[in-house]
């Protein structure tokens, strides 16, 4: 039995919000099935992503845009976790809203922009649906997350963890222990295992999910505005112990708009809360901490 709670979205009904709240409060993660995303097209999106990362390195490097990696390609070993000097063993591509920063698209494969743009919209819609469901148990107005997050600075990250090389830094793993920056993350089930969360008792536990499920976790921004009633859970991606192949995953980081204020909800204020900050400034600080700004 999986340690992380699982919810079938299509049949959750009015219990959805409370079940989400309890799962995120207990483990910081929840597995969502029957989410309504077209599974055959999801497989097509993965195929396009895999084809892109198989391109020659010099061709991929033509799509590096700026220093902070918020759009386009970020090369292998460029990012590290906060408080970890060792680089993560990954390369990735970022897609966001053109209204916030223009996207770039590779010429190959031809299906890349179509499939990735579709997946961005599908995960954005699902993420807002889950946040709206949380407003009940959080005891905030039903439009709270629409006000701060609809049309926000959300990013879809297309990740490739290549096979481990003989000369890899022994201090590096595929993704060192970290918490996500945003409100919630929606992670389409990866192509291989390796994702682990740090349980409240200090034990690392593997996250198991059915194929085609979406794994949802709490980010630092949601933890901040709930004063850690919904804490962000530390997680990592460990190096493979078995076959040394590639691993692909596609997390969607649901962000507020940059000018939205991250203020603790009144009912969670107890004198320990962090000061108000805009989502844009919070993101800037965290990008500096992970070497992307």
UniProtKB/TrEMBL annotation:
<dbReference type="InterPro" id="IPR005123">
    <property type="entry name" value="Oxoglu/Fe-dep_dioxygenase_dom"/>
</dbReference>
<dbReference type="GO" id="GO:0046872">
    <property type="term" value="F:metal ion binding"/>
</dbReference>
<keyword id="KW-0223">Dioxygenase</keyword>
<comment type="similarity">
    <text>Belongs to the iron/ascorbate-dependent oxidoreductase family.</text>
</comment>
<dbReference type="InterPro" id="IPR026992">
    <property type="entry name" value="DIOX_N"/>
</dbReference>
<dbReference type="GO" id="GO:0051213">
    <property type="term" value="F:dioxygenase activity"/>
</dbReference>
<dbReference type="Pfam" id="PF14226">
    <property type="entry name" value="DIOX_N"/>
</dbReference>
<keyword id="KW-0560">Oxidoreductase</keyword>
<keyword id="KW-0266">Ethylene biosynthesis</keyword>
<feature type="domain" description="Fe2OG dioxygenase">
    <location>
        <begin position="151"/>
        <end position="256"/>
    </location>
</feature>
<dbReference type="Pfam" id="PF03171">
    <property type="entry name" value="2OG-FeII_Oxy"/>
</dbReference>
<dbReference type="InterPro" id="IPR027443">
    <property type="entry name" value="IPNS-like_sf"/>
</dbReference>
<keyword id="KW-0479">Metal-binding</keyword>
<dbReference type="GO" id="GO:0102276">
    <property type="term" value="F:2-oxoglutarate oxygenase/decarboxylase (ethylene-forming) activity"/>
</dbReference>
<comment type="pathway">
    <text>Alkene biosynthesis; ethylene biosynthesis via 2-oxoglutarate.</text>
</comment>
<dbReference type="GO" id="GO:0009693">
    <property type="term" value="P:ethylene biosynthetic process"/>
</dbReference>
<keyword id="KW-0408">Iron</keyword>
<dbReference type="InterPro" id="IPR044861">
    <property type="entry name" value="IPNS-like_FE2OG_OXY"/>
</dbReference>
<protein>
    <recommendedName>
        <fullName>2-oxoglutarate-dependent ethylene/succinate-forming enzyme</fullName>
        <ecNumber>1.13.12.19</ecNumber>
        <ecNumber>1.14.20.7</ecNumber>
    </recommendedName>
</protein>
<dbReference type="InterPro" id="IPR050231">
    <property type="entry name" value="Iron_ascorbate_oxido_reductase"/>
</dbReference>
């Amino acid at each position: 039995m999986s340690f992380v709670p699982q919810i079938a979205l299509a049949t959750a009904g009015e219990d959805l919000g409370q079940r989400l709240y309890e799962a995120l409060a207990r483990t910081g993660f929840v597995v969502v099935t029957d989410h309504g995303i077209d599974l055959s097209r999801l497989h097509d999106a993965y195929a396009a992503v895999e084809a892109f990362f198989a391109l020659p390195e010099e061709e991929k490097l033509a799509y590096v845009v700026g220093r902070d990696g918020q759009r386009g390609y970020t090369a292998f070993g460029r990012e590290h976790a906060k408080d970890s000097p060792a680089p993560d063993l990954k390369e990735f591509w970022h897609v966001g809203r053109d209204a916030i920063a223009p996207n770039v698209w590779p010429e190959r494969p031809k299906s890349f922009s179509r499939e990735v743009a579709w997946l961005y919209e599908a995960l954005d819609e699902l993420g807002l649906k889950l946040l709206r469901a949380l407003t009940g148990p959080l005891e905030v107005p039903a439009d709270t997350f629409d006000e701060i997050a609809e049309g926000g600075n959300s990013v879809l990250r297309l990740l490739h963890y290549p096979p481990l090389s003989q000369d890899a830094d022994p201090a590096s793993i595929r993704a060192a222990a970290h918490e996500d920056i945003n409100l919630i993350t929606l992670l389409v089930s990866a192509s291989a295992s390796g994702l682990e969360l740090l349980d409240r008792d200090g034990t690392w536990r593997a996250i198991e999910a059915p194929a085609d499920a979406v794994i949802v976790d709490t980010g630092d921004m949601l933890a901040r505005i709930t004063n850690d009633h919904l804490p962000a859970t530390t997680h990592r991606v460990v190096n493979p112990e078995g076959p040394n192949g590639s691993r692909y995953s596609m997390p969607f980081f649901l962000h507020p708009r940059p000018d939205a204020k991250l203020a603790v909800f009144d009912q969670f204020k107890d004198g320990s809360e962090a000061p108000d900050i805009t989502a844009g400034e919070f993101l800037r600080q965290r990008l500096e901490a992970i070497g992307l700004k």
